[in-house]
């Protein structure tokens, strides 16, 4: 029933426009009552983004299941990948929704609030992990924002290309960029010398990001 | 007249609540007609954030006035400082609004959309400056998000402290954090040897951010 409502809603949104479609139109096409609609969706906006609540719950559970062994920045990057997976599961639906959302201000506002909830979940986890460290909340908030921005940069490029291309590879590349700037290396596997050193030589006027890039390569994280 | 409307609106919002106050109540208290209200403010939300449009225009003008000599990350940090200045000009008003916004979902949504417009302005500028470079839009989006997150981390701490303490110093500290991660050094002044080198030696398991911190210190940007 839930899927039938989503399908009916999208058919009408695309045919008539979002604002022009009422909940009554949707339930009429789906052949169910108004009550059934509101059992699944608190509002008309929610039927456009039917999977975000589940994804937010999955993300929260994933972060809560972390241990102290998990490198925090890697963990929030992996948490962000859950969002990508939700979009990539239904490429055609995701692309349709992207086009619809771009045209309808109330949906853009809804999307911003969802993105903000993801970002807050990531930041909340990092704040806990960084507790007691210098600039803990600042670092947590900046990293969470960077992860979300990198994820969305890659996701939107994929949506703009009509879901063609490898979304996961693009998001991996984008998140590596953030991990390189903020993440720690995992502890070296047993047998590898912890005294291993890396030397970087840079001219003073070299942009810091270039030095970091070289550093990544040297550390095998490029 | 504009200031009188803002003052009347805030008096009522704080006394009765935001949802409970109508535009009619506001114009009655201010002693003007409805038309006057809507000449200044498109909606009731806008009277809560009366200075963002001007600040967005100032930010856009500031970024448009940039030259190729301006280091891009420093420039967006300076652009973000315009927002802080707007809040710091009227500390009492800013703190009242912060408390009000926290309680009213529609105002939080409005604030998210404003923050997003600032972030897009910064990202748009960086995308142009980085055009032709590797990962240009990715880097632009991530840096813009990091700048906004750092700025808001410091701004909100100041608002939570009821506007006590030095907001500018807090924002400077937060933005330095972002500049250190992403910014380039300015070209060395004439007379300084461009061949100047810096050597960093790090153990392989050292977190990358620690290496970057040392690097900053070595490069005199700590």
Mean pLDDT score of chain A, rounded?
A: 88
Radius of gyration of chain A: 21 Å
Structural class of chain A: mainly alpha
Q: What profile does the largest beta sheet of chain A have?
A: none
Number of beta-strand segments of chain A = 1
Point out poorly predicted stretches of chain A.
Answer: 185-195
CATH C-level of the largest domain in chain A: Mainly Alpha
Tell me the greatest interface: A-B, 56 and 55 residues
Domains of chain A, number: 2
SSE succession of chain A: HHHHHHHHHHEH
CATH architectural arrangement of the largest domain in chain A: Orthogonal Bundle
Instruction: Estimate percent helicity of chain A.
Output: over 70%
- Rounded to the nearest angstrom, the distance between the terminal CA atoms of chain A is 47 Å
Oligomer: homodimer
Strand content of chain A: under 5%
CATH topology (fold) name of the largest domain in chain A: Tetracycline Repressor, domain 2
Q: What key phrases describe this protein's structure?
A:
homodimer; 222 residues; mainly alpha; Arc Repressor Mutant, subunit A; Tetracycline Repressor, domain 2; 2 domains; 11 helices
């Amino acid at each position: 029933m839930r899927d039938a409502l989503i399908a009916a809603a999208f058919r009408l949104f695309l045919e008539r426009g979002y604002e022009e479609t009422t909940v009554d139109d949707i339930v009429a096409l789906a052949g169910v009552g108004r009550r059934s609609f509101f059992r699944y969706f608190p509002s008309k906006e929610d039927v456009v983004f039917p999977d975000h609540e589940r994804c937010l719950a999955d993300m929260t559970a994933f972060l809560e299941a972390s241990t102290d062994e998990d490198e925090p920045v890697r963990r929030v990057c992996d948490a962000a990948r859950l969002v990508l997976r939700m979009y990539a599961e239904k490429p055609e639906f995701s692309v349709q929704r992207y086009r619809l959302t771009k045209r309808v201000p109330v949906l853009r506002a809804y999307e911003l609030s969802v993105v903000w909830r993801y970002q807050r979940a990531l930041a909340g986890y990092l704040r806990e992990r960084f507790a007691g460290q210098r600039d803990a909340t600042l670092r947590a908030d900046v990293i969470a924002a960077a992860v979300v921005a990198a994820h969305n940069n890659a996701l939107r490029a994929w949506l703009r290309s009509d879901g063609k291309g490898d979304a996961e590879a693009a998001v991996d590349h984008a998140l590596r960029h953030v991990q390189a700037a903020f993440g720690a290396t995992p502890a070296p596997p047993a047998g590898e010398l912890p005294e291993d050193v890396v030397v970087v030589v840079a001219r003073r006027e070299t942009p810091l990001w270039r030095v970091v890039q070289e550093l990544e390569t040297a550390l095998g994280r490029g």
